[in-house]
Amino acid sequence: MANTYDLIQSYNLSSDSSGGVTFSNIPNVYTHLILNCSVKGNRLNTREDLSITINGNTGSYSNVRFYGASGGGRGSDGGTGWNYLGMASGATAASNIFGNSEIIFTNYTSNTLKNAISNSGVSASTSSGDVYQLGFGFLSAPTNLTAAISSININSINGTALNTGSTLYLYGLRNT
Amino acid sequence: MTKLKSVEINCETGEVIETPYTDAELAELVVLEAQLEIEAQERREAAEAAAAAKAAAKASAEAKLAALGLTAEEIAAL
Questions:
Q1: What ipTM was estimated for this complex?
Q2: What's A24's domain CATH number?
Q3: pTM above the 0.90 mark?
Q4: Under an 8 A CB cutoff, do B11 and A44 touch?
Q5: Domain containing A20: what range?
Q6: Number of domains in chain A
Q7: CB-based contact (8 Å) between A169 and chain B?
Q8: Hey, which bits of chain A come out as E strands?
């Protein structure tokens, strides 16, 4: 169990950003990183997926996701070439609804394969009723990404922007 | 409202770099987003039309089978 749980930086989007949000120059003094997000994208859906890009590396990520929704839809997907992880609300969710994700980057300074795990969910009131969606996921970074994680970009993947009001918090965990 | 190309938070210094679109870029973006929305609408309409055509074909086939004397259970089993 970590003895230190430090807020490294946080950000509250005051304008829509098509390039998402990037945390750069992440210090390498922690053991793990945790990114907590309350975000909204502009995809025409109640839910939006989030993309993760580490150190600007746009190589081949792999993921697996398990998800369920209150309407009965549930299942899993994933594969090579996907860098989806986490969940946001979409444009058809009410304006004050944000999707919540916690994404953990374990051992981010080691020279081994980088990966991240997430749990996320969003609830949205729609004209046809309330929708609740929940997901868990795992992301494996490109195999050539062996340097410590120094930057993380998070963005809307199906839409064209992360929306105003989205908030992101990056924490560092260490054992001392 | 200002629309940003990107936001970068430097974790060492705390500096936030917000890169806005220029007016010209923003105008291009509005056109692009409108085009994307039109394309998305066209895809939705095409999918709905395909689904309607499929349902109509199924109903037609079921009507023909019923006319041949098959029961609903027999048609469903096909």
A1: 0.88
A2: 2.60.120
A3: no
A4: no
A5: 4-174
A6: 1
A7: no
A8: 4-12, 16-17, 21-24, 32-39, 47-54, 62-69, 74-80, 84-89, 99-105, 115-126, 129-140, 152-156, 167-174
